[in-house]
Amino acid sequence: xxxxxxxxxxxxSWQDVPDPDLxxxxxxxxxxxxxxxxxxDLHIIKGDVPEVTPGTVLGHEAVxxxxxxxxxxxxxxxxDRVLVSCIAACGRCxxxxxxxxxxxxxxxxxVLGHLIDGTQAEYVRVPFADLSVHPxxxxxxxxxxxxxxxxxPTGYEVGVLNGRVRPGDTVxxxxxxxxxxxxxxxxxxxxxxxxxxxDLAESRLQAARDMGADATVGADExxxxxxxxxxxxxxxxxxxxxxxxxxxxxxxTRMVRPGGHVANVGVHGRPAALHLEELWxxxxxxxxxLVDTHSTPMLLRMxxxxxxxxxxxxxxxxxxxxxxxxxxxxxxxxxxxxxxKVVLGGPRHDEVSVPA
Length: 356
Known about the structure:
Layout: E1 2-8, E2 11-16, E3 28-36, H1 39-46, E4 62-69, E5 81-84, E6 123-126, H2 129-132, E7 133-135, H3 142-145, H4 151-163, E8 170-174, H5 178-187, E9 194-199, H6 202-211, E10 215-218, H7 223-230, E11 236-241, H8 246-255, E12 256-264, H9 276-279, E13 285-287, H10 296-304, E14 315-319, H11 324-332, H12 334-337, E15 341-345
Parallel strand pairs: 8-9, 8-11, 9-10, 11-12, 12-13, 14-15
Antiparallel strand pairs: 1-2, 3-4, 3-6, 3-15, 4-5, 5-7
Helix pairs in contact: 4-5
């Protein structure tokens, strides 16, 4: 089969690799119908995630069809159309029993495209299939569903839930890429007083406004002053870092109010300064986290009911699966191309229409 293989920092290739086989009785092999590229993949290629070794197939988000399952798999069978979660869960370890699947110690967690071959391929082996893939209703398109593999659970769990967004809060989201936009969309489930989006690119600020942000500001146009003005000098109740660079994190800590929350979502490859000499007295809570995807079934139900934004609100570029290298180029040059989310592949099933 063809797959995108990491060859070392700055190097990838779309090449022939062996088809995946079942290695465990809990595995499933999925034919990939739709896949997307994550900002984390760009961090891997830059060398920010040294655990990824040369020869690894990248990718951790996909929708596809089950072609083979191990003898212990009970929840899906060949022919089922499924969402492949970015997180695998053994279901037995101490962290899985706490719904902290991202910290799984039984062979799960973030393994796809990280510690084992991932989804940016024609086929993928998924471990612990009973907890790591989700059957899809026909009413949810592949393009919509693939947004639930990572970005919506991440924005919701690591941004909104960790940030403890409450009714009436002032919420600042620094970084209006796909994760930031998913954070803006799901924060509205808790009726915040206002949402402020910060980014360098005007195209992303416009996307944030379209997604429901009440105010937007360029990262180089005084966001701290705007937050201070809108909150009468108090600061934001919740600030979400969705960029992954030191400057963004440090900016977040300057915008949060005493007693507020800073929720770090971004993937960081360099150290950031933590100014405890200023923060120690402010009762500020700072959270970090890898998504657990415990919310995926709920988000999938919301997507099927039309309660989440469709892919059309976020997907800016579409490619055939074999155009992987072109898609990466477009996604990596988002400032020039205006790319938000790119999707490769397309549906291979009969669409099911649902009466209104």
